[in-house]
């Protein structure tokens, strides 16, 4: 029996992993939430990791409030960076492999072609910087670690762009949405699926765990404006959506104008195909209906 620890199991990704975990055979899951494990409590984090001979640790915790992070630098650093050093160190001591999730916001958005894993990072927000430092802390403390950068995550759980656009679309007659930021929406269910696939492939020795940085989002490209239109069309929301520029919707944390991720590496190493973003959106909206 393999032991796997899922830290942060009540977030969007954590809940999807919880939902899908039964697909793995001969694996015993331990789930923690903020209530049972606060990752800013270093001793508690170390004790939890060392409480069993875990084979794998998946970190789904994060400080994800991108704008608030500009103010709450210390807390964002503790959760997104310092905790990763502790996770890496403790995992190393017990010989556990770690899968951690990071973000497209480690890039500054100046690219004109999808970002590959080796492209130069240059975050332009506190959130992006703390996540990048977390990647580095983990990879330097535990060589058996994998960082999966993803983008524009949504699910049926928690607060996310999809749910906000449904709410605003139902409340208002007209809405302005940014069209000059381009990326790829990613359904948390698909991300959970690939993470469990990576663990399963390692256990069954189909593909040995290959540490390092990977990019994973759904396939395709969209602006927030396109994303909104797709949501509203599927949900039969008749609100008029106007494309607006970033400069007309200033936020405390700047976002990259372009953050499409190239997924060639993960597709090749793990021999997977990735769903198109609109197909996954339809799946999620069906559940929300
Ligand atoms: N959301 C996106 O658009 C997006 C985009 C790119 C990358 N990512 C990355 O994808 C990963 C998963 O994101 P997500 O959307 O699933 O995040 P999420 O829904 O915000 O979940 C994060 C979880 O971490 C928990 N948490 C916060 N502080 C904690 C602490 N001190 N100790 C323990 N748990 C704590 C949160 O608990 P509470 O909810 O109770 O606070 C929440 O359950 C993250 O690494 C994120 O950076 C997300």
From TrEMBL:
Keywords: NADP, Oxidoreductase. It catalyses: dTDP-beta-L-rhamnose + NADP(+) = dTDP-4-dehydro-beta-L-rhamnose + NADPH + H(+). It is an enzyme of class 1 (oxidoreductase). InterPro entries: dTDP_dehydrorham_reduct, NAD(P)-bd_dom_sf, RmlD-like-bd. Pathway: Carbohydrate biosynthesis; dTDP-L-rhamnose biosynthesis. Pfam families: RmlD_sub_bind. One of its GO terms (molecular function) is dTDP-4-dehydrorhamnose reductase activity. The keyword Transport does not apply. Residues 3-285 form the RmlD-like substrate binding domain. Its EC number is 1.1.1.133. Gene3D superfamilies: NAD(P)-binding Rossmann-like Domain, UDP-galactose 4-epimerase, domain 1. Catalyzes the reduction of dTDP-6-deoxy-L-lyxo-4-hexulose to yield dTDP-L-rhamnose. Belongs to the dTDP-4-dehydrorhamnose reductase family. This is dTDP-4-dehydrorhamnose reductase. The lineage of its organism: Bacteria, Pseudomonadati, Bacteroidota, Bacteroidia, Marinilabiliales.
């Amino acid at each position: 029996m393999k032991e796997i620890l899922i830290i942060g199991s009540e977030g969007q990704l954590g809940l999807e992993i919880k939902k899908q975990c039964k697909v793995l055979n001969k694996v015993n899951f331990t789930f923690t939430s903020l209530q049972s494990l606060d990752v800013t409590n270093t001793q508690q984090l170390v004790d939890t990791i060392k409480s069993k001979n875990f084979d794998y640790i998946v970190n789904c915790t994060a400080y994800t409030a991108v704008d608030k992070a500009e103010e709450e630098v210390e807390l964002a650093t503790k959760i997104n960076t310092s905790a990763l050093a502790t996770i890496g160190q403790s995992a190393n001591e017990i010989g556990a492999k770690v899968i951690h999730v990071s973000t497209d916001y480690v890039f500054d958005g100046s690219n004109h072609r999808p970002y590959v894993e080796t492209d130069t990072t240059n975050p332009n927000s506190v959130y992006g910087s703390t996540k990048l430092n977390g990647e580095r802390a983990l990879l330097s403390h535990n060589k058996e670690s994998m960082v999966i950068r993803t983008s524009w995550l949504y699910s049926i759980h928690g607060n996310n762009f999809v749910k906000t656009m449904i709410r605003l679309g139902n409340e208002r007659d007209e809405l302005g949405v940014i069209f000059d930021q381009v990326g790829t929406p990613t359904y948390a269910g698909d991300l959970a699926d690939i993470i469990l696939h990576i663990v399963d492939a390692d256990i069954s020795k189909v593909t040995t765990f290959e540490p390092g940085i990977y990019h994973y989002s759904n396939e395709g490209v969209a602006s927030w404006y396109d994303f909104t239109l797709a949501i509203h069309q599927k949900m039969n929301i008749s609100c008029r959506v106007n494309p607006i520029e970033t400069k007309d919707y200033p936020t405390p944390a700047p976002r990259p104008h372009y953050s499409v991720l190239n997924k060639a590496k993960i597709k090749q190493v793990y021999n997977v195909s990735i769903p198109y973003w609109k197909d996954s959106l339809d799946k999620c909206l069906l559940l929300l209906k």
